[in-house]
Amino acid sequence: MSTKTSIPFLDTESAARKERIRQLKRGFRTFAGNKLSLVGLAMILTLVAAALLAPYIAPFPEHAGAGVYFDQASEPPSATHLMGTDTTGRDIFSRVLFGARLSLLMSGIVLSIAISIGVTLGLIAGYLGGTTNTVIMRVTDIFLAIPPTLLAMAVVAATGASLFNVMVAIAFSWWSWYARLVQGEVLSIKEDEFIESSRALGSGWVRTTFREILPNVVSPITVKATLDMGFVILVGAGLSFLGLGAQPPTPTWGAMIAQGRNYVTSFWWIAVFPGLAISFAVLGFNFIGDGLRDVLDVEVD
Question: Could you read off the pLDDT of 73-92 as tens digits, one per residue?
């Protein structure tokens, strides 16, 4: 007669796997139960698809460049030009699609840089404490005291107007938010038992911070990054509107609004449709961010 024997290690691992599956199902139900989150997800998927497929779905892809078509200038929305044309005859719908590619690329690169710098400094400051924490957080406070748009404008004015310089400038002004967020999270868990166990086993501070602490602060970072995607797009559009972003004929939403601002009363579509594209992107990311905040049960400033 045989008897089943269980291995405690395998039982624990199986229980942990089942718990993770339950948490994923619970999170999916929470996200799916928030209608605005689903709307936001649909909006962003549409935006990403439009950006990726822009060369194939844009009716006039050549209009994303420097062409001039005066015979089609300032035409209102129609079946041929869904969003009308600008003062040089370029199709606005095609330019909005290509502008989406630049906006998503810019926000992705900006947040990648900002998160890399901010999270690293936040981990170091929170874990080491003392003078290191004081110095890093005082520098962080200085950056937090300056509005991101103003700081980015100063950096671009000093380095020159271009898409690359705009991305660097915005990232330069954005990392401090992540440093402050992560430092606060680290301070709240650095004395927990699993951290003490890591220290007792002889792990150095680098291994402890990046192997033990970092995975536990991913949730607030994810929520904040999702919310920030829309705001970075908004700041980038503002800089382009002021002529500090990518230079013509590159199709950026902010520059397209700047071009049409003098014709709002006569050719309203030139400025209105790029503005709606910005609103669409910002709202979509905000809706998703709110949903993720409920799923992950975190609070971010």
Answer: 999 999 999 999 999 999 99
More confidently predicted of 207 and 100: 100
> Which residues touch 96 (CB under 8 Å, ≥6 apart)?
83, 251, 253, 256, 273, 274, 277
Q: What is the spatial distance between Cα 177 and Cα 160, in angstroms, rounded to a whole number? A: 25
- Residue of 142, 144, 168 whose CA lies nearest to 244: 168
Contacts of 136 by beta carbon, 8 Å cutoff, 6+ apart: 121, 124, 125, 179, 183
From the list 212, 208, 144, 235, the residue with the least C-alpha distance to 181 is: 144
Which tokens sit at 88?
A: 């040089």
Whole-number pLDDT of residue 1:
46
| Whole-number percent of the chain with pLDDT over 90 | 54
DSSP states of the chain:
-------HHHHHHHHHHHHHHHHHHHHHHHHHT-HHHHHHHHHHHHHHHHHHTHHHH-S-GGGGTT---GGGTTPPS-SSSTT-B-TT--BHHHHHHHHHHHHHHHHHHHHHHHHHHHHHHHHHHHHH-HHHHHHHHHHHHHHHHS-HHHHHHHHHHHH-SSHHHHHHHHHHHHHHHHHHHHHHHHHHHTTSHHHHHHHHTT--HHHIIIIIIGGGGHHHHHHHHHHHHHHHHHHHHHHHHTT-SSPTTS--HHHHHHHHGGGTTTSTHHHHHHHHHHHHHHHHHHHHHHHHHHHHT----
Q: Which of 251, 244, 216, 226 is nearest to 101 (CA)?
A: 251
Decide: 286 and 230 in contact? Cβ < 8 Å: yes
Nearest to 287 by CA among 118, 45, 7, 54: 45
